[in-house]
Amino acid sequence: MAGPLAGIKVLDLTRVLAGPYGTMILCDLGAEVIKVERPGVGDIGRGNGPFLDGVSSYFLGLNRGKKSITVDLATDGGRQLILRLVQHCDVLVENFVPGDMKKFGLDYDAVSQHNPRIIYASCSGFGQTGPYAGKPALDVVVQGMGGIMSVTGQEGGPPVRVGASVGDIAAGMFLCIGVLAALQERERSGRGQRVDVAMMDCQIALLENAFARYFATGEVPRALGSRHALFTPFQAFATKDGYVVVAIIGTEWPLFCAVLDIVEFIDDPRFQSSELRTKHYSVLQPVLEQRMKTKTTQQWLVELEQVGIPCGPINTIDIVATHPQTQAREMVVEVPHPTLGKVKLINSPIKLSRTPSQVAQPSPELGEHTEEVMTKWLGLDEDEVEKLRRSGSI
Q1: Within 10 A of 386 (CB to CB), how many other CB atoms are there?
Q2: Distance set, CA 298 to CA 247, 256, 288, 325 (Å)
Q3: What percent of the chain is modeled with pLDDT above 90?
Q4: Which residues have a catalytic role annotated?
Q5: Each residue of 244-263: b (16+ CB within 10 Å) or e?
Q6: More exposed terminus of the chain, fewer Cβ within 10 Å: N or C?
Q7: Once rounded to an integer, what is the mean pLDDT over residues 343-365?
Q8: What pTM was estimated for this model as a whole?
Q9: What whole-number distance in Å separates Cα of residue 96 and Cα of residue 98?
Q10: What is the band of 250 on the pLDDT scale with cuts at 50, 70, 90?
């Protein structure tokens, strides 16, 4: 069944993680994504392990379903090919350092002259404007500069990088949103436009509540471990055999006290609201920690769930991969690979009733679809394709 973006053609000039993650979402939703890679080298993500019989598992997940062509952007022949290809595309996505695409002669102004309807999406560390525009960045750099590391980690401890690459992944998601919005607007205006997404901007957007609190109070948010700045208790607690997460934001406090057998806290004036409980956290925390260690995680889950208190265990990746909820939502899929057999990949979390997203194909071999795209899109014959190969353009 065709996805909701069936018929949309994307020329993907991105590498590594942020850009490929955004185009991966577009591909899962049905767009035809043509990944442009450097001849003989490819996306440097192909070199990231762990490897399955020489195939990068890192690359597998981010580039499933895409087609790969090889084009050398540094050659005049390669540049001309891109300008011809964009005439057949709806979207071009790139994540070079700002200024590099202009050096190639492939910046938005140049490309839009060949296709005024093109959605030209750029993802970079700091965006196309501002004093840091030309500064390269990777995930940990923007996590640090964007503020999220300052509020991650144990209270009083050193700054900690978030365990997932949220600097890259958030940028990829916002990039996809920007492309979808621009495509929708094009339906009205008939015109393309530039989409400019900065990884640091996206970190700031993720921290909207931290900034709201700072603007309101002037107090700089800090790391609180697994705690919440506004709600208490809202954190992970050690149990007799592991950890359990409890999240109380409403009227569950008396029920929680009853389950923990600390009913004297129900009417204690220091704990009558989340704000007061947070204010008197140093008094409350030792008691809660001591009580939570008296039973196993499963025992607490049963008792807390019986009275409707939001809670859950801290699952490791292996448990999540085989969890019945994960299976019921089909979040792990097996995709046939020409050399590896069936490989497990993470499915799209976007569930649509009529035009579902899907992960149907594996990642491509380097340049696997070069001849197909050159002949079908540009009408080149075999001799012309071979001439381009000999010249080093593809």
Answers
A1: 13
A2: 16, 16, 17, 17
A3: 98
A4: 228
A5: bbbebeeebbebbbebbebe
A6: N
A7: 94
A8: 0.94
A9: 6
A10: confident
How far is 135 from 143, CA to CA, in rounded Å?
15
The domain covering 9-206+324-391 belongs, at the CATH homologous superfamily level, to: Crotonobetainyl-coa:carnitine coa-transferase; domain 1 (3.40.50.10540)
Segments in 218-280 forming alpha helices (H): 253-259, 274-279
Is the separation of the CB atoms in 157 and 223 below 8 Å?
yes
Q: Where are the domains of the chain?
A: 9-206+324-391, 234-314
**Residues forming beta bridges with residue 51, ordered by sequence position:** 56
pLDDT category at 1 given cuts 50, 70, 90 is confident
Average pLDDT, the chain: 96
Amino acid identity for residue 300 in this structure: W
Structure tokens at 255: 């029920």
Residues near 338 by beta carbon (within 8 Å), at least 6 away in sequence? 362, 365
**β-strand pairing of 243-247 with 311-313:** antiparallel
Tens digits of per-residue pLDDT, 256-282?
999 999 999 999 999 999 999 999 999
Task: Say what the pLDDT of residue 125 is.
Answer: 97
- Average of pLDDT values for 362-369? 96
Asked if residue 149 has pLDDT above 90, the reply is yes
Cα separation, 244 vs 260, whole angstroms: 13
Q: Which amino acid is it at 207?
A: L
Cα–Cα distance between 205 and 187 in angstroms, integer?
A: 28
The stretch 198-212 carries a mean pLDDT of 97
> If we measure between CA atoms, which residue out of 6, 11, 8 comes closest to residue 82?
11
- Tokens 């925390």 identify what position? 285
Token digits for 1?
């069944």
Q: What class, spelled out in words, does domain 234-314 have in CATH?
A: alpha beta
Strand partners, 55: 52
